[in-house]
Design goal:
about 210 residues; alpha+beta; Beta Polymerase, domain 2; five-stranded mixed beta sheet; two-stranded antiparallel ribbon; 9 strands; about 40% helix; about 15% strand
Protein backbone atom coordinates (compact mmCIF):
# COMPACT_ATOMS: atom_id res chain seq x y z
CA UNK A 1 0.00 0.00 0.00
CA UNK A 2 1.19 3.56 -0.62
CA UNK A 3 2.36 5.40 2.46
CA UNK A 4 0.29 8.26 3.82
CA UNK A 5 3.13 10.74 4.09
CA UNK A 6 1.90 12.87 1.19
CA UNK A 7 -1.64 13.30 2.49
CA UNK A 8 -2.26 17.03 3.11
CA UNK A 9 -2.51 18.11 6.74
CA UNK A 10 -5.96 19.53 6.17
CA UNK A 11 -8.42 16.70 5.70
CA UNK A 12 -11.65 15.28 7.01
CA UNK A 13 -10.24 14.86 10.54
CA UNK A 14 -7.55 17.50 11.16
CA UNK A 15 -7.89 17.32 14.95
CA UNK A 16 -7.53 13.55 14.97
CA UNK A 17 -4.55 13.73 12.64
CA UNK A 18 -2.84 16.24 14.90
CA UNK A 19 -3.59 14.08 17.94
CA UNK A 20 -2.10 11.08 16.13
CA UNK A 21 1.06 13.04 15.38
CA UNK A 22 1.34 14.32 18.95
CA UNK A 23 0.93 10.89 20.54
CA UNK A 24 3.26 9.18 18.08
CA UNK A 25 6.00 11.80 18.34
CA UNK A 26 5.78 11.77 22.15
CA UNK A 27 6.05 7.99 22.44
CA UNK A 28 8.90 7.94 19.92
CA UNK A 29 10.76 10.66 21.84
CA UNK A 30 10.38 8.72 25.09
CA UNK A 31 11.41 5.47 23.36
CA UNK A 32 8.18 3.76 24.36
CA UNK A 33 7.29 1.02 21.92
CA UNK A 34 3.92 1.39 20.24
CA UNK A 35 2.01 0.68 17.04
CA UNK A 36 -0.86 2.37 15.29
CA UNK A 37 -3.99 0.21 15.49
CA UNK A 38 -7.74 0.51 14.93
CA UNK A 39 -9.27 2.62 12.21
CA UNK A 40 -6.21 4.75 11.55
CA UNK A 41 -4.07 1.64 11.27
CA UNK A 42 -6.45 0.33 8.63
CA UNK A 43 -6.43 3.77 6.96
CA UNK A 44 -2.70 3.39 6.42
CA UNK A 45 -3.45 0.04 4.77
CA UNK A 46 -5.99 1.64 2.44
CA UNK A 47 -9.29 1.79 4.34
CA UNK A 48 -11.44 4.93 4.70
CA UNK A 49 -10.19 7.44 7.24
CA UNK A 50 -11.95 7.17 10.62
CA UNK A 51 -13.73 10.12 12.16
CA UNK A 52 -14.18 9.18 15.82
CA UNK A 53 -10.82 8.45 17.45
CA UNK A 54 -7.25 7.22 17.10
CA UNK A 55 -6.07 3.87 18.48
CA UNK A 56 -2.49 3.06 19.42
CA UNK A 57 -1.20 -0.07 21.13
CA UNK A 58 1.55 -0.06 23.76
CA UNK A 59 3.08 -2.94 25.66
CA UNK A 60 1.21 -3.75 28.84
CA UNK A 61 4.35 -3.23 30.89
CA UNK A 62 4.79 0.29 29.45
CA UNK A 63 1.27 1.57 30.05
CA UNK A 64 2.16 3.73 33.06
CA UNK A 65 5.19 5.22 31.33
CA UNK A 66 3.03 6.01 28.30
CA UNK A 67 0.37 7.70 30.44
CA UNK A 68 2.97 9.84 32.21
CA UNK A 69 4.68 10.81 28.95
CA UNK A 70 1.43 11.84 27.27
CA UNK A 71 0.29 13.81 30.31
CA UNK A 72 3.61 15.65 30.40
CA UNK A 73 3.16 16.43 26.69
CA UNK A 74 -0.04 18.28 27.55
CA UNK A 75 -2.67 15.64 26.79
CA UNK A 76 -5.49 14.99 29.24
CA UNK A 77 -5.27 11.39 30.41
CA UNK A 78 -8.38 9.61 31.65
CA UNK A 79 -8.76 6.11 33.09
CA UNK A 80 -12.10 4.52 32.13
CA UNK A 81 -13.51 1.52 34.02
CA UNK A 82 -12.24 -0.84 31.30
CA UNK A 83 -8.90 -2.35 32.29
CA UNK A 84 -7.52 -2.70 28.76
CA UNK A 85 -6.96 0.93 27.77
CA UNK A 86 -6.66 4.52 28.85
CA UNK A 87 -7.74 7.60 26.95
CA UNK A 88 -5.64 10.61 26.04
CA UNK A 89 -7.29 13.80 24.80
CA UNK A 90 -5.70 16.48 22.66
CA UNK A 91 -8.43 19.07 22.96
CA UNK A 92 -11.56 17.28 21.76
CA UNK A 93 -9.66 14.62 19.83
CA UNK A 94 -9.59 11.26 21.60
CA UNK A 95 -6.81 8.69 21.44
CA UNK A 96 -7.41 5.23 22.87
CA UNK A 97 -4.15 3.79 24.18
CA UNK A 98 -4.64 0.02 24.20
CA UNK A 99 -2.51 -2.28 26.31
CA UNK A 100 -4.65 -5.39 25.81
CA UNK A 101 -5.88 -6.63 22.43
CA UNK A 102 -8.13 -9.62 21.80
CA UNK A 103 -8.15 -10.34 25.52
CA UNK A 104 -4.37 -10.62 25.81
CA UNK A 105 -1.74 -8.16 27.06
CA UNK A 106 0.09 -6.34 24.29
CA UNK A 107 3.74 -7.39 24.33
CA UNK A 108 6.91 -6.76 22.39
CA UNK A 109 6.27 -9.75 20.12
CA UNK A 110 3.05 -8.20 18.84
CA UNK A 111 4.64 -4.78 18.41
CA UNK A 112 7.50 -6.40 16.48
CA UNK A 113 5.00 -7.47 13.79
CA UNK A 114 4.28 -3.80 13.00
CA UNK A 115 6.39 -2.44 10.12
CA UNK A 116 7.01 1.28 9.92
CA UNK A 117 5.07 3.43 7.46
CA UNK A 118 5.29 7.08 6.56
CA UNK A 119 2.20 8.56 8.20
CA UNK A 120 1.54 12.30 8.20
CA UNK A 121 5.24 13.10 8.14
CA UNK A 122 6.33 10.56 10.76
CA UNK A 123 7.72 7.04 10.57
CA UNK A 124 5.17 5.11 12.62
CA UNK A 125 4.85 1.36 13.29
CA UNK A 126 1.47 0.08 12.10
CA UNK A 127 -0.06 -3.26 13.06
CA UNK A 128 -0.78 -5.61 10.14
CA UNK A 129 -4.25 -5.34 8.65
CA UNK A 130 -5.16 -8.90 9.69
CA UNK A 131 -4.32 -8.22 13.33
CA UNK A 132 -6.47 -5.09 13.40
CA UNK A 133 -9.40 -6.76 11.66
CA UNK A 134 -9.17 -9.74 14.03
CA UNK A 135 -9.52 -7.40 17.00
CA UNK A 136 -12.56 -5.77 15.41
CA UNK A 137 -14.16 -9.13 14.57
CA UNK A 138 -13.68 -10.51 18.06
CA UNK A 139 -15.31 -7.39 19.52
CA UNK A 140 -18.58 -8.10 17.65
CA UNK A 141 -21.55 -8.79 19.91
CA UNK A 142 -25.27 -8.11 20.15
CA UNK A 143 -24.49 -4.63 21.46
CA UNK A 144 -21.60 -3.98 19.09
CA UNK A 145 -22.58 -5.08 15.61
CA UNK A 146 -21.72 -2.30 13.14
CA UNK A 147 -21.37 -4.44 10.05
CA UNK A 148 -21.59 -1.47 7.67
CA UNK A 149 -18.38 0.10 8.93
CA UNK A 150 -16.61 -3.24 9.17
CA UNK A 151 -17.63 -4.21 5.64
CA UNK A 152 -16.16 -0.98 4.29
CA UNK A 153 -12.75 -1.50 5.87
CA UNK A 154 -12.57 -5.23 5.09
CA UNK A 155 -13.45 -4.58 1.46
CA UNK A 156 -10.71 -1.95 1.26
CA UNK A 157 -7.94 -4.13 2.72
CA UNK A 158 -9.11 -7.59 1.61
CA UNK A 159 -5.99 -8.34 -0.43
CA UNK A 160 -3.84 -7.86 2.68
CA UNK A 161 -5.86 -10.16 4.94
CA UNK A 162 -4.91 -13.66 6.02
CA UNK A 163 -8.30 -15.28 5.44
CA UNK A 164 -7.33 -18.60 7.01
CA UNK A 165 -6.41 -16.84 10.25
CA UNK A 166 -9.66 -14.89 10.17
CA UNK A 167 -11.56 -18.10 9.56
CA UNK A 168 -9.97 -19.74 12.59
CA UNK A 169 -11.26 -16.87 14.73
CA UNK A 170 -14.84 -17.88 13.85
CA UNK A 171 -14.62 -21.05 15.94
CA UNK A 172 -17.05 -20.60 18.82
CA UNK A 173 -17.82 -16.99 17.85
CA UNK A 174 -21.16 -16.84 16.01
CA UNK A 175 -20.91 -13.13 15.20
CA UNK A 176 -17.50 -13.59 13.60
CA UNK A 177 -18.73 -16.59 11.62
CA UNK A 178 -21.83 -14.70 10.48
CA UNK A 179 -19.73 -11.78 9.28
CA UNK A 180 -17.33 -14.04 7.40
CA UNK A 181 -20.23 -15.86 5.75
CA UNK A 182 -21.50 -12.46 4.66
CA UNK A 183 -18.19 -11.28 3.17
CA UNK A 184 -17.75 -14.59 1.39
CA UNK A 185 -21.23 -14.50 -0.12
CA UNK A 186 -20.67 -10.88 -1.18
CA UNK A 187 -17.51 -11.94 -2.99
CA UNK A 188 -15.20 -9.94 -0.73
CA UNK A 189 -13.37 -13.02 0.55
CA UNK A 190 -11.53 -15.15 -2.02
CA UNK A 191 -13.67 -17.97 -3.38
CA UNK A 192 -11.25 -20.66 -2.24
CA UNK A 193 -11.50 -19.40 1.35
CA UNK A 194 -15.26 -19.73 1.54
CA UNK A 195 -15.52 -23.30 2.79
CA UNK A 196 -12.62 -22.89 5.19
CA UNK A 197 -14.04 -19.75 6.75
CA UNK A 198 -17.72 -20.56 6.78
CA UNK A 199 -17.74 -24.32 7.32
CA UNK A 200 -20.66 -24.56 4.92
CA UNK A 201 -21.34 -25.59 1.34
CA UNK A 202 -23.82 -22.81 0.64
CA UNK A 203 -23.27 -21.30 -2.82
CA UNK A 204 -22.45 -17.60 -3.17
CA UNK A 205 -25.46 -15.29 -3.34
CA UNK A 206 -26.70 -14.39 -6.83
Amino acid sequence: MPDKGLVPDKGPSPLLREALRTVASTLKAEQIGFALAGGYGLWVHGAPEPVHDVDVAVADRDVEAAAVALAQAGLRVERPPEDWLFKAYAGDAMVDVLHRLRGEPVDERLLATAPEHEVLGLRIPVLPASEIVLAKLEALSERNCDLEGLLAVVRAVREQLDWETLGAAADGRPFVEAFLVLVARLGIAPDESFSKICHTDLPPAR
